[in-house]
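Project standup — Tuesday

K.O.: blocked on the structure for the chain from last sprint. Re-posting the sequence here as requested.
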Amino acid sequence: MKIFYTSSYYLLIVFLTFFSCTNKIETKADLVLMNGFIYTSDKNRTTAEAVAIKDGKFIFVGQSKNVEIFIDDFTQVIDLKGKNVLPGFIDSHCHPISTVKQLYDVNLNGLKKISDIQNAINSFREKHPNAKFIRGRGWSNYDFPNNGPDKKYLDKIISDIPVIMASEDGHSRWVNSKALELAGITKNTINPKGGIIERYLGSNEPSGTLRENATSLVNTLFPYYNLEELVAGLEAYQKMALALGITTAHDAYLDFGVDEIAAYALLEKKNKLNMRFRASIYLDPDLGIEQIKNLLLEQDKHKGDLFRINAAKIFIDGVVEGGTAYLKEPYNHLPNSHGKLLWNVNKLNTFCTELENNSIQIHVHAIGDAAVSTTLDAFEYAYTRSGKKNSRNLITHLQLVSPSDILRFKDLGIIAVPQPYWFKKDSYYYNIQVPYLGQKRADIEYPMKSFFSSGVIVASSSDYPVTIPSNPFIAIQTGITRIDTDSTKSDSALWADETVSLEQMITSFTINGAYANYLENITGSIEVGKSADLIIINSDIFNIPTKDICKTKVLLTLFKGKEVFRNENYHPHP
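H.V.: unblocked you, prediction finished:
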């Protein structure tokens, strides 16, 4: 009996010794970063000097002197030499799928003169002489105020095939006479529900600009992109986003019936997604509630680690530049118009209730103050009837918001998703916002500090490709200053009372973005057990002048511990 115990004891010691040694080997890191300033974005906004990464996750976050036990001969080590490290950024409302347009259409972004626009379209035609149609994107409403651009500018260069050019915000289309002819749009065509056919002053003749739902009148003339093109667009988006430090993005508008969802799914299947995507599927206000059933089917089909469908996308209104944002008080330049409410309120309430019953997140576009109030009313209606779920409903854009509604965000648990890139007095402000809204309303646009102060979760975003480049450091600086990054004026802040701190801006692009996408336990902060999504940057954004934050460059981007972008001038290893 004594021998049995002695033998058992001996075997136990041998086993524990072996296990201990094995365990030590297993805790050695694949990669260690040390001697840096690491802003973790965790609950306490902790800072650290070093991290250790194994199998794509953080296994240590702390001081450099304590990280050495995770290093062996096989561990890759990066000496940060004091550089800043942040969690990978999360863009909570953008349109990655739209990158396909940058590859296959006319790019008008940044072009102001009619002659430059015409030259760009002509150049595209020369490169595609057999094209049966031409489409593009990027003209600005503030370059064509009131009725929008005239079809005659397009007719002058191309009249034999249809031409369609989307505005940079995506809410208007500029078409030539051939497109109007083929679509059957004449002076006798009435405005569709939720849409506007712009017309010549004093006439019913269409002038060439279509707003909101009126754009659907010409859609059939322009076949949609195929799967191969959409995949190429997504691959191009990933390359761009990772260079900007974006490791997670929410595609805010995917459509049923085309290959957009299939493009994401195919890239995930082929292990070609190098970042994380979440998405919303558009619900049409003119179609029935069966759309929710279809959404649920798509959700069930796509439950991958890197691509999932979280939400339903609802457009409550349009945009200020089109006179279609839904306002409580009339437009200054259209004194008889409050804009467009794109949903019947009863139908909206029904849809929100059904979405809530199915625990589907609701992702709402609301620009005007009346649109925001209507959305909050619908959420409250749904909660009263279905019981509040963990649906994390959110409202994006939020150009005008009544102060009392900010408190309702908190009470209802609604996430605010602004685009801080737009918090400035620029050409859009002077040429559109002031004349369309009046000085008083133009000067109280885009609240942000009020949301933070009220305890509302704020998740920042770019609305790319409306914003190009979608560089988070530009947004961070603009959120802090509310001044155009190109401005040298000290008195040009847009609503200076709403400026926020650097820490709040980082929070909005990291852990709050993770929460908005149900990812707070996976990413959004640098903590043990989480995905090793991080960026190394070239400047100390916590100590440099605020005006220089926008110049910050990403040196290295890691996603799940894997290098997915490196600046060509950054050589962290000897």
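K.O.: great, moving the ticket to review. The chain has three domains: 2-82, 97-221, 227-528. The two ends are 61 Å apart (CA to CA).
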